[in-house]
C-alpha cells in the first residue's frame, strides 16, 4: 500500500522507554496514585503525533528536558516551565513543543501497536500543524487549572486533537494502560472552543 498523502497518526509510547530514571519515577508515581484510587497500577504512556501533509512529514512531540539551545533545528513552536513557573527561566526547567519536519520519535521502537491513524482529512492535518504554535503554556507537572490532572506532554497532544475536531476523549490508551494529563488537554481545548468558537471553525 502506498503512503497516504495526508493523515494524523498517534503514537503510544511507554513512559520512560529506553531510560531507567523516568520509567522508575513513573512507576513510583503510578503506584502512589493507584493506591489512592483503590485500583491496580497501570502502565503509563506518553504520546506523540506524526502528521503527513502533501508538503512533507512532521513529528509533533512535547519533550523535556530540552537537549540544547538550538530550537530551530527541531521546529520548536512553544516553550513552557516545568514544576514551577519561576523555574522556566532556565533551560533545564523548560519543556518544548516541536513541529519537526522529518523528525525522529526517539522511543518509536518501543511504541505499542505502532502509529494509529486518527484522521485522514488533509484540512485537519494542515490545521494541527498551525495550531502547534497556539498550544497553551501551562506549568508541566502541575494542576494549576484545577482540572484534577496535571498538565504534561499528553495534555498537549489531546489539546491539539480536540482543537481540530477529533474526539480525543474517546481514544483509549493501550489495554492495561493510561495516559496521565490526557483529560486535562481535552478540557482546556473544549473550554477554548466554547469561549472562542469562531477561532476553531474548520473548512
Major sheet, described briefly? Answer: 7 strands, mixed
- Work out the count of structural domains: 1
How many E strands?
A: 7
Oligomer: single chain
Report low-confidence residues grouped into runs of 5 or more: 198-203
Structural category: alpha+beta
Element order: H for helix, E for strand:
EHEEEEEHHEH
- Binned, the helix content reads 25-40%
Give the DSSP E fraction (strand runs of 2 or more residues).
Answer: 15-25%
Shape: globular
Question: First CA to last CA: what distance?
Answer: 28 Å
Name the average pLDDT. Answer: 87
Backbone CA Rg: 16 Å
Number of helices: 4
List keywords for this structure.
203 residues; 7-stranded mixed sheet; alpha+beta; disordered C terminus; 23% strand
Structure description:
With about 200 residues, the chain is of the alpha+beta class. It has one domain. It is built from four helices and seven strands, in the order βαβββββααβα. Strands 1, 2, 3, 4, 5, 6 and 7 form a seven-stranded mixed sheet that branches. It is globular, with a radius of gyration of 16 Å. Mean pLDDT is about 85; it is low at about 200-203.
Q: How are the elements arranged and paired?
A:
Elements: E1 7-14, H1 20-36, E2 43-53, E3 56-63, E4 76-81, E5 94-101, E6 116-119, H2 122-131, H3 153-163, E7 177-178, H4 182-195
Parallel strand pairs: 2-7
Antiparallel strand pairs: 1-2, 1-6, 2-3, 3-5, 4-5
Summary?
The chain is of the alpha+beta class.
Amino acid at each position: 500500500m502506498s503512503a497516504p498523502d495526508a493523515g494524523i497518526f498517534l503514537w503510544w509510547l511507554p513512559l520512560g522507554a529506553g531510560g531507567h530514571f523516568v520509567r522508575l519515577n513513573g512507576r513510583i508515581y503510578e503506584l502512589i496514585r493507584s493506591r489512592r484510587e483503590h485500583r491496580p497500577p497501570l502502565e503509563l504512556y506518553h504520546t506523540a503525533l506524526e502528521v503527513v501533509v502533501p508538503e512533507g512529514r512532521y513529528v509533533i512531540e512535547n519533550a523535556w528536558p530540552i537537549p540544547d539551545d538550538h530550537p530551530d533545528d527541531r521546529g520548536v513552536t512553544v516553550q513552557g516551565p516545568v514544576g514551577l513557573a519561576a523555574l522556566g527561566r532556565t533551560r533545564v526547567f523548560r519543556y518544548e513543543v516541536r513541529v519537526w519536519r522529518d523528525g525522529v520519535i526517539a522511543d518509536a521502537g518501543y511504541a505499542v501497536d505502532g502509529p494509529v491513524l486518527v484522521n485522514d482529512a488533509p484540512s485537519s492535518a494542515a490545521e494541527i500543524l498551525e495550531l502547534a504554535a497556539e498550544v497553551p503554556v501551562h506549568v508541566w507537572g502541575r494542576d494549576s487549572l484545577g482540572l484534577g490532572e496535571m498538565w504534561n506532554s499528553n495534555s498537549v497532544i489531546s489539546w491539539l486533537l480536540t482543537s481540530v475536531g477529533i474526539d480525543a476523549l474517546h481514544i483509549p490508551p493501550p489495554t492495561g494502560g493510561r495516559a496521565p494529563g490526557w483529560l486535562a488537554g481535552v478540557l482546556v481545548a473544549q473550554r477554548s472552543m466554547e469561549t472562542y468558537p469562531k477561532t476553531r471553525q474548520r473548512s
